[in-house]
Amino acid sequence: MDLKLKNRTALVTGSTAGIGLEIARKLAVEGASVVMAGRSRAKLDQAVASISAEVGAGIVRGVTADAATAEGAETLAREVPQVDVLVNNLGIYESKPFAEITDADWHGLFETNVVSGARLAQRYFQPMLDRNWGRIIFVSSESGLVVPPDMIHYAVTKSAQLTIARGLAQLTKGTGVTVNSVLPGPTRSEGIVEFLRSVASDPEAAPDVLEAEFFRLHRPLSLIQRMIEPEEIAALVAYLASPLSAATNGAALRVEGGIVPTIA
Length: 264
Known about the structure:
8 helices
């Protein structure tokens, strides 16, 4: 299917690995000019080279910036003054007992998971309205709806993303701009094995054993009982970035393997 993304410019934050990398790759394959944002120049260069080897030179470029900071947002706004598609993918997570969550933990998660996307949406939203076309996509989580008791602080930030996205969508009424959220479930991305070890009964177990135990004990509602592949999430994000998704606005679309036990 042609997603009609040729000549569109997309900015993807947190795009040097995992979900963000595959979103950038999918958008580039579909014809978009992609700007990848990350903190490490070396990782950015590696990610850009990986995608460029597939789609050709000149389609993807990297901007070194920490989107979780005001300075990083300013850098992105200066280096990428106009975008058609903004994918707020940057995010961090951890498992931690509620009684042990510090003020620094709360502030760090909010700055990275919530404020970073809000800043960039503020920068690019009005120009999209002025041009009467644009796509803003927040990569949230099923944890924003089904709260893991060992990740309450993370879940709060993911619920906050849904609130921002829905509120912005209500400001697009009658325009060609849409704002949506995607809710992935546990995903096979960078650092996932270490996360599984942090909640496992036997941290030294093989990765497949860790994964099976995680779903049995911590995500029993999952219908697929496996990690979601980053490419599976990227496919949905690419559709939302496309002109083909014009009738989808203000939505929270689930790609979480059936963890959310509701019919809508």
